[in-house]
Amino acid sequence: MTEQASLSLRGEIDLANASQLAAALRERERLRPSTLRVDLRELLFMDAAALRVLVEAARRAHRDGRRLLLVNPRPTIQRLFALTGADGTLNVVFD
């Protein structure tokens, strides 16, 4: 098990490319990090398909005793989390 793994997201993630996000998350999860940091500072847009991928990853992390941290989301992404109630499931941090 590694201590930490990371992934940085950029641009837009929606139904057309959410499966690529899911694959990237699973690839890092295979390393079995105690913490997986997903840097959102350069993510401009995400839709419900991308949000679902992140929520599912957070649930897997919780189930497996790991942490998924969503780091530095822009205000528009934070708003999506709040409007959907996902902010209660997701662990958002700022550094």
Q: Which labels suit this protein?
A:
single chain, four-stranded parallel β-sheet, alpha/beta, 3 helices, 32% strand, 4 strands, 95 residues, globular, Transcription Regulator spoIIAA
Show the helix and strand layout.
Blueprint: E1 4-13, H1 18-29, E2 35-46, H2 48-63, E3 67-71, H3 75-84, E4 91-93
Parallel strand pairs: 1-2, 2-3, 3-4
Helix pairs in contact: 1-2
Q: Mind explaining what this structure looks like?
A:
- A 4-stranded parallel sheet has the order 1-2-3-4.
- The protein has one domain (4-93): STAS domain (Transcription Regulator spoIIAA), CATH 3.30.750.24.
- By secondary structure, it is of the alpha/beta class.
- Helix 1 packs parallel to helix 2 (48-63).
- Strand 1, helix 1 (18-29) and strand 2 form a beta-alpha-beta unit.
- The longest helix is centred in the middle third of the chain and has 16 residues, at 48-63.
- The protein is built from 3 helices and 4 strands.
